[in-house]
Amino acid sequence: RLGSVRGVPGSSPPGRRARPWFPGISCTSAEAREELRRRLLGLIEDNRVMIFSKSYCPHSTRVKELFSSLGVEYNILELDQVDDGASVQEVLSEITNQITVPNVFVNKVHMGGCDRTFQAHQSGLLQKLLQKESAYDYDLIVIGGGSGGLACAQEAAILGKKVMVLDFVVPSPQGTSWGLGGTCVNVGCVPKKLMHQAALLGQALSDSRKFGWEYNQQAKHNWETMTEAIQNHIGSLNWSYRVSLREKAVAYVNSYGEFVEHHKIKATNRKGQETCYTAAKFVIATGERPRYLGIQGDKEYCITSDDLFSLPYCPGKTLVVGASYVALECAGFLAGIGLDVTVMVRSVLLRGFDQEMAEKVGSYMEQHGIKFLRKFIPVMVQQLEKGLPGKLKVVAKSTEGPETMEGVYNTVLLAIGRDSCTRKIGLEKIGVKINEKTGKIPVNDVEQTNVPYVYAVGDVLEGKLELTPVAIQAGKLLARRLFGDHLEKCDYINVPTTVFTPLEYGCCGLSEEKAIEVYKKENLEVYHTFFWPLEWTVAGRDNNTCYAKIICNKFNNNRVIGFHILGPNAGEVTQGFAVAMKCGLTKQLLDDTIGIHPTCGEVFTTLEITKSSGLDISQKGC
Amino acid sequence: VESAHSGRQDYDLLVIGGGSGGLACAKEAAQLGKKVAVVDYVEPSPRGTRWGLGGTCVNVGCIPKKLMHQAALLGDRIRDAPHYGWEVPQQVPHDWRKMAEAVQNHVKSLNWGHRVQLQDRKVKYFNIKASFVNEHVVCGVTKGGKETLLSAEHIVIATGGRPRYPTNIEGALEHGITSDDIFWLKESPGKTLVVGASYVALECAGFLTGLSLDTTVMMRSIPLRGFDQQMSSLVTEHMASHGTQFLRGCTPSRVKKLPDGQLQVTWKDLASGREDMGTFDTVLWAIGRVPETRSLNLEKAGVNTNPNTHKILVDAQEATSVPHIYAIGDAAEGRPELTPTATMAGRLLAQRLCGQSSDLMDYDNVPTTVFTPLEYGCVGLSEEEAVARHGEEHVEVYHAFYKPLEFTVAERDSSQCYIKMVCLREPPQLVLGLHFLGPNAGEVTQGFALGIKCGASYTQVMRTVGIHPTCAEEVAKLRITKRSGLEPTVTGCG
Fold it and tell me: Residue ranges of the FAD/NAD(P)-binding domain (chain A) (predicted)?
């Protein structure tokens, strides 16, 4: 068992049982072995003195007594008291070439066994190594000042650690850059929700006439007014982040960070000046940036979501390339403020989301004037006219045949995906593995990379969700585990999210496809219905557009494993249901809960029709 | 009359009152194969307002009030719009007529829908005013005075309630209106005095203010009695900042019609004893509701009521003092006066009557939302109630003032956007109550009501990842306890 012991002269260390040791890991597979190795390196990394010993070994006892007599705190792992002690011993011998116990590490330096430790004590080497305590400039350096990085840095600082954040925004090919706070605040959630709100207000204006408000002319929209107001808000957020870092005594450096050797990072500022910093631990939170097509004219003439929210002129007639949620959200609000918008889609909408919902999102957009070009990809973008905006010719070809087409737009917005910022930060210098294809960083369930002192959070993680609140949660919990007394891991299951398309789509848990894949169709019951928000009635909007669906596991008490809603305020509706799913929501509980009348959310308390019944779910008109 | 009670009854189930609870009960029982009749009759209000099938919620409650609330919210949106780049005029006038007509047309379509649904389910519908003849027989009178006798095995009373008029104020009945009338007014009510501090009073005053009408609320004591009082104060504080005027600690003593048609109201300030006066176009009484039980001849059937409230005494099965006569909804003693509770109680009652299930209605943790200009959603216990039940030492309150993202650009004041979660102090800190003040509070609260039903703890709520950027995510980020005395203001993100 692993125990932490503060040395007291004359007393022998108690065999305290602190926590279970690597439960469930048997060193049979290479993967499990790698995991064990990583954890052992972590222990060596994290403890000033680490002793691998056996509780009955007299040599081990001598070593422990030595450190106790020196008054030095040390950690021990008794190999004879853990289930996988033999595997631990094997992996240790791979790391150190020493098969015996005790196996002693001081300040990450392999000391050896009992004799070597006593020799080092006599020669003074041991004392020297012990003094090397604050060898690093910082306890933690976070690379990337976005949602995850800032959350982690601030939490570590609250826990009394010396922390630095390196943040540097490489300008987009169009020259756009921004302040502290990362994607969400500057070029993501915040500005997109505000532009979405602008579009919703446009709809509210036309609704308002039906509710008795009197004005006649078609309201016109001014892009510059909106953008300036939004950028002002973002500016205030950038500022508040800086203030908050300062208040928590986190060192903020507006420089580009790049590993140069173990525990050492080079920071290059805007003027090209370089400074090196060292730290005991690192967190990579560099996030992602929009991907380009790699076709003629794309970097010269196209913009991405990095540029759109601060565009100094109205984009005009716009082609949005892609079918990611970024693509559909941008297309949605651009159309909502009155622009002519076309979306070019290579294959499916909202890949990874429930496809029935995704198609409904798309068809609502289509009904609201957004054109979709399905199964086409651009092959060339040409400038016809300069200007703000100018005129661009786009040539596209079919994904299914030789057919090509051309179109002229003022703006081409690429939203085909995002790439991790992991290839130019010197990870190869210290051996942090990335997925060569995607650039993503694989981590274990405590966000640790293959290099034990290097961690990663947020969008750079492989196989995790690219969402601000997830990054914040992961960052905060990581800091608490590293520097506090917490064990709680970030739970990536049942994370709710919402796509802010003109008709919002909120979901939590599994898509219907995924549920069928995991549980088999015959084990599921899907309840669904269209619903008509009360506010839509007088506004004269369609009564069979908003849609609610839950997916239940018949053989687990009809537990709700997927929650989907398409309707106004879907984000606000979904949040509470996510809490309920965390607490084991079942269909019965939904039925037993009283609705709040009249809301959209109440529809989930009265779901009666199953998909398998094939019954009609349409709402009757007047 | 002689044919009525001769062994077999006309119906398996007779429902008196075609509101939310009654209709739900009737439809469910018919679906389960019973022979069912519904009798419904709307006694015109003192102003002469009347309406169709569907009860309070559809005609003079939830539906029209939420629509008028929406009309008022759209007024706010028009003011927000220029901040978001929309070029709209500064002052946009509102046409009451147009709104009222649209709202009334929607309500009429719902009346029609209810009739069709009854027909589809083979429920016999009578537009008659019912009173008991004996414990199995009810006599119904049509508008024209024609009498019909109906007998039934089981009878459900779901007659609801109607607004109360003050009895001792001169001119109150002659010149005042109530929520029974406001939604059916053809013309704008103009400058309005709303008397009362119930949610009906505050909701009406809220949308009238939002529709640019000069609106004053006169209340004798506290707002929203029975709701969390801290939240209630914030609700009225927001209304005041939104333009509603408040006369607190005042009671009206006289309403007089002036020659020009305006109403002169005299009131008394209870603290100083001073009298004051003002003129209004409309006086709206929203001082409470009385159950519609007094014309039912309940004593003929032997059904007991509470002599003070006139509500019908019921047990957990919704049964009255007469075992085969039941009461649900607003007419029943001790029940929350809410549409969805009446609906569910009605459905469950029908299922029990048909031997379909034995489930009882659970009246705990009923979520609700007050649709004031800043909406207030809640579920579970108020802070006062939690402290009274568990003791202050055992209650932990997490709270936060927050700023909705949409308010920033619109430069709206968010001083009253506030969330409070009342928990047990003992880990894992079971959630006892949630209170949310902000936009879309109803939508936010619904899911959390489920969470509380599932026995959510503070820890579980905190482990739920937020949806960014929403207002609801602020609930999952509540960190500051009242006990700590720390500033509960959310600053920045993260």
Answer: 138-475
